[in-house]
């Protein structure tokens, strides 16, 4: 496969990952999907899956929250995998290349948001004032394509064409001890990714369940699948018990209310009988 065709296919993969404005939140942008497709293009699907799993752990907490935009993981995943497989290097190299590439492309993405997207947003506002729903939909599609999809695709394609020979030459002169150090860093970054995720999720209400899962995995040697099964069963038990408890407390109240009404009615009749 020629370099130009490979660059084109990688660009299309990146554009597919950036298609959430058209396809919705389909999770196609995640490194596990992007690296696998990039590995398919580069002729090594297995290595692409391995690199995707590693990058997925590193970027596990990488989601846009409010005005905070995370690194552009799509370009980092595609280019990191393509360069590493093309140079015949390990997963550590893909991770080392992917993270700085994602941070650099984020700058380009922000520039597109500043200089390209506002035009389509203002046009969409204009169509909204007119009640033109078709024009509004068209601005949504065109704005996403020209401000996100097309620029990232061009960056990935051009970067692969211009950067592949340079990256191969650069990797050839990297000493082995540095590659080994990158392998150690590869093992640390997933832990960092999980820490970012836990920072958002763990609080005083669910920390007990986290400790329980940790104890099951470490001290009882239960695999992750087993811990997940225990967690699912525990969730069903707790939610089922809560629903049952609410129903149990609701029914006596209803019965008590009916009894009170009946007794009140009977009491009235008794009083009438007494008057007679």
Automatic annotation (TrEMBL):
Residues 255-276 are annotated as: Disordered. GO terms for biological process: phosphoenolpyruvate-dependent sugar phosphotransferase system. It is a multi-pass membrane protein. One of its GO terms (cellular component) is plasma membrane. Keywords: Cell membrane, Membrane, Phosphotransferase system, Sugar transport, Transmembrane, Transmembrane helix, Transport. Pfam families: EII-Sor. PANTHER family: N-ACETYLGALACTOSAMINE PERMEASE II COMPONENT-RELATED (PTHR32502), N-ACETYLGALACTOSAMINE PERMEASE IIC COMPONENT 1 (PTHR32502:SF8). This is PTS system sorbose-specific iic component. It comes from Pediococcus acidilactici DSM 20284. The lineage of its organism: Bacteria, Bacillati, Bacillota, Bacilli, Lactobacillales.
């Amino acid at each position: 496969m020629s370099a130009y065709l490979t660059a084109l296919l990688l660009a299309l993969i990146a554009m597919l990952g950036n298609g959430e404005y058209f396809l919705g939140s389909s999770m196609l942008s995640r490194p596990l999907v992007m690296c696998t497709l990039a590995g398919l293009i580069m002729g090594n699907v297995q290595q692409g899956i391995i690199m995707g799993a590693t990058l997925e752990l590193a970027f596990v907490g990488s989601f846009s929250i409010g005005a905070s935009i995370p690194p552009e993981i799509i370009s980092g995943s595609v280019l990191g995998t393509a360069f590493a497989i093309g140079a015949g290097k390990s997963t550590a190299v893909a991770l080392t290349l992917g993270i700085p590439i994602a941070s650099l492309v984020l700058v380009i993405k922000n520039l597109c948001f500043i200089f390209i997207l506002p035009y389509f947003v203002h046009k969409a506002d204009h169509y909204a004032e007119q009640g033109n729903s078709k024009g509004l939909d068209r601005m949504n599609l065109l704005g996403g394509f020209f401000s996100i999809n097309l620029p990232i695709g061009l960056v990935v394609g051009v970067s692969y064409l211009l950067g592949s020979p340079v990256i191969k030459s650069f990797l050839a002169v990297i000493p082995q001890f540095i590659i080994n150090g990158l392998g150690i860093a590869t093992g640390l970054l997933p832990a960092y990714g999980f820490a970012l995720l836990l920072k958002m999720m763990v609080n005083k209400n669910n920390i007990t369940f986290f400790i329980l899962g940790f104890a099951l995995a470490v001290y009882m040697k239960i695999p992750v699948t087993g811990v997940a099964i225990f967690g699912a069963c525990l969730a069903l038990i707790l939610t089922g018990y809560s629903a049952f408890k609410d129903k149990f407390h609701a029914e006596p109240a209803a019965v008590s209310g009916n009894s009170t009404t009946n007794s009140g009615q009977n009491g009235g009749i008794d009083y009438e009988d007494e008057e007679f």
